[in-house]
Design brief:
Blueprint lengths: L1 E2 L5 H7 L5 E7 L3 H13 L7 E7 L3 H10 L6 E6 L2 E7 L2 H4 L1 H8 L3 H14 L3 H14 L4 H13 L3 H8 L4 H5 L1 H17 L2 H12 L4 H13 L3 H14 L4 H12 L5 H14 L1
Parallel strand pairs: 1-3, 2-3
Antiparallel strand pairs: 2-4, 4-5
Helix pairs in contact: 6-7, 7-8, 8-9, 8-11, 9-11, 12-13, 13-14, 14-15, 14-16
Length: 279
């Protein structure tokens, strides 16, 4: 466990608190501090990803000076450093009584943990898993604007433009003023332009002219899915399957599209619709 010294005080308290909370525990080797020391060291392990615990024995001149500077009048005491300065403090019996409450304030929410995992999955190339986790994170905390914009970006990347519109349309005042929101709207516009390809328009024309041609409909549905219009694609294929559930090539295309929709509620909806026909 880290111990405060004259040599590391800047590194631990200033540099170290820029990206995560630093809890500095002031104590002496006395019976009055025994219970608090056990509680603090037991609650914050050395491998805590979000909080760094530093022990400061006030017999050391540096620790004593810092303790006085913060305004403590005795030990045990605990100060929280963030961005290079003390932001919260506990003293005496409060160190034990209110420690867990303090820790919770500096630990990420479940929704934040899910989004961190989502970003890790995206970086690893697992976009479907990333979308599932990001959607769950946003569902847990829909007021979190950062997570909302991350999810919208992932939907655009996945060509799920309908879902991206649901998140980006009708923005609040704060969203409208943010450059990252404006960038996402531009990205969505470009994605829609790319999706409206000459090949897709030609297949749409052919389908309109020959709506009962199964091969054209299947090709059109596949092109729609590739352009991110999966719901429209599934509806086209489902209409064929309602008339001929034994059409295995159409059923395979339908299932292939479903397999690309992990994390999208439509996946379950359209899978259940198929099962209703089959059973």
């Amino acid at each position: 466990m880290l111990t405060l010294t004259e040599q590391n005080v800047k590194q631990l308290l200033v540099d170290g608190s820029m990206n995560k909370a630093v809890f500095v525990y002031f104590y002496m080797d006395t019976p009055e501090c025994t219970a608090a020391t056990s509680t603090v060291t037991g609650a914050i392990g050395e491998n805590n990803e979000y909080i760094t615990l530093i022990k400061a024995d006030v017999k050391d001149p540096v620790a004593q000076a810092l303790c006085i500077q913060i305004g403590f009048q005795g030990v045990p005491a605990l100060a929280v450093f963030s961005k290079g300065r003390p932001v919260e403090a506990l003293q005496g019996d409060d160190v034990t009584a209110k420690l867990q409450e303090l820790i919770v304030r500096y630990m990420p929410k479940e929704s934040e943990l899910k989004m961190r995992k989502a970003l890790e999955e995206e970086a690893a190339g697992n976009l479907s898993d990333a979308l599932r986790l990001a959607a769950a994170s946003f569902a847990d905390d829909p007021a979190n604007l950062e997570n909302k914009l991350i999810l919208a970006r992932m939907y655009i990347k996945d060509k799920n433009l309908t879902k991206a519109h649901e998140l980006l349309d009708n923005p609040g005042r704060e969203e409208q003023s943010r450059q990252d929101y404006k960038d996402l709207v531009s990205a969505l516009t470009l994605a829609e332009q790319a999706a409206d390809s000459p090949e897709l328009r030609e297949l749409e024309k052919q389908h309109a002219e020959q709506p009962d041609n199964c091969e054209i409909t299947k090709s059109y549905a596949a092109a729609l899915a590739e352009a991110g219009k999966r719901k429209e694609a599934l509806e086209l294929l489902f209409e064929i399957l309602k008339k001929d559930i034994g059409n295995d090539t159409v059923k395979k295309t339908y299932l292939d599209i479903l397999s690309t929709m992990a994390g999208d509620p439509l996946q379950k909806q359209y899978r259940n619709k198929l099962y209703t026909l089959m059973y």
